[in-house]
Amino acid sequence: MKTKLLFILILVVSAVLYLATLRGIPGNAPGYLIKNNLDQASKPFELSPERGRYILVLSLANNHRFSLSKELAEAAFPDVGYIDGRFYVYFAPGISLLALPFYLIGSLFNLGQVATYAVISVFALLNIVVLFRICRDMFKLSVGPSFLAPLIFAFGSIALSYSNTLYQHHVTAFFITSSLYAVWRYRKEEKFSWLWALYVWVSYGLAIGIDYPNGVLMLPVMIYLAFSTFPLKQTEKKLTISIRLSGIITAIAFVLITALHGYYNYVNFGSPTKLSGSIIGYKQFLQTKEEGTRKGEQLLKKLQSEKNVSGFFQEENIPFSPYTLLISADRGIFLYAPIYILAVLGIFSVLKRLNSELNAILGTIGVHFFLYSSWGDPWGGWAFGPRYMIPSLAVLSIFIGIWLQKYGKHLWAKLLTLILFTYSSAIAFMGAVTTNAVPPKVEADFLKMKYNFLHNYDFLMSGKSSSFVFNEYFSQIMSLQQYYTILFVTAVVTCYILLFIVPMLYKDET
């Protein structure tokens, strides 16, 4: 009973904090208002990923099609492409499809844009639930560490700045973590365990529709499922392999979802295997128009044949990108969230007792890190921290829980955790209430701008906020600094309670 009550309280506090930082403005934000108006720093469409996905929502809601009108295409620039007389955003359609019902409901109350962004906050809350269940059920952690792990991910990392806007990272994290948990339940061979296998296959298919690299990022989870479908048993005389047909039959769900995705590609881009990211850009399209009809058509075909999404990944980037993702002054995760140093310590603490679950989690982190180390833009464009690593931060937080389970009884470990969380959370909330439009150092030096959270500090001090709740309801009665302090202190006090008070309530429990 105590755990259920604490669980509810944690979710309520988390929901309030997510609502308090939700980005947006009143109204349904039509396309013609976006360009050169709502696409400035601290505005709801400050960066092209959220802008493009929202514009696709508008096209689906108002025009009932995936292709964009010329007006919407211009608003979505530069992440918009052209093919056969039609314009499309470069992003996979999954996030926009998930957000569409939220927009339709919100638009009835003149809150279409805010409601659209709220879909990501819902998935951020679901991530807290799933991470708690992984810590509590899979790794048998005590109550305090089981709650602290998701709390650190939610409010002690850059994930907070992407829980209130239309990015894919929290949805990707949800599909990865929930599928890890589902495979573990499937391995237990409980009654109706086939439903867990079905969920994993459905998640894999949907995750690819959310963001195409998820097809690679979720491979360790699918390998984990494969070993669970074909379990090996070692006896004194021989090694036997079993087959669980449920793990094979449920793959039909993935085939059907993939076929539907292929049909979408065929209808819109002319081939089941052609992705939106492989069509030529809007800027290139304009260049071909300047060449005249015949030359323009020839140039258009040439450019289209040369466009290939695999070109975004280059192995020569791998030696340099880890520095950017881990310790650089503009994107390094240990600069933005040093609490994850404890995750590294947690990993070292389990290396001598690896099992299938730990291998799957470590494999997920490894594949994720390798993939985005080869990415041509490890900075994530203008972004708050290394945003591509958010799904890995979700699973890395589990290792913080494992470390706390081992050392959390010591006062020094609690104090170290609280200090690191306080620093990390201060930065996380700074980004969440101001802007994600932070340039990488290479561009910031040229533009004479700041290139990390010091840029956000300037916004905080000048009172420029992206928060819908603050701007609409609190800006007249308090400063942005006061609002920020209330949210930040709430998170730190919650962390303190979980570190020092909760263990006293569970002295006789694990």
Question: Characteristics of this structure?
Answer:
single chain; 510 residues; mainly alpha; 3-stranded antiparallel beta sheet; 25 helices; 5 strands; 64% helix; 3% strand
The major beta sheet can be summarized as: 3 strands, antiparallel
Which range best describes the helical content: under 10%, 10-25%, 25-40%, 40-55%, 55-70% or over 70%?
55-70%
End-to-end Cα distance, whole Å, is 15 Å
Strand order, sheet with most strands:
2-1-5
> What portion of residues belong to β-strands?
under 5%
Low-confidence stretches: 302-306
Give the number of helices.
25
Give the strand tally: 5
Topology order in helix (H) and strand (E) letters: HHHHEEHHHHHHHEEHHEHHHHHHHHHHHH
Radius of gyration, in angstroms, nearest whole number: 23 Å
List the helices and strands and how they pair.
Elements: H1 2-21, H2 34-38, H3 48-63, H4 70-76, E1 80-83, E2 86-89, H5 94-107, H6 112-138, H7 143-155, H8 169-187, H9 194-210, H10 214-217, H11 219-229, E3 232-234, E4 239-241, H12 245-249, H13 251-269, E5 280-281, H14 282-289, H15 293-306, H16 321-326, H17 333-336, H18 341-350, H19 356-373, H20 390-407, H21 411-433, H22 441-447, H23 453-462, H24 468-474, H25 480-505
Helix pairs in contact: 1-6, 1-7, 1-25, 3-4, 3-5, 5-6, 6-7, 6-8, 6-20, 7-20, 7-25, 8-9, 8-11, 8-20, 9-13, 11-19, 14-15, 18-20, 19-20, 21-23, 21-25
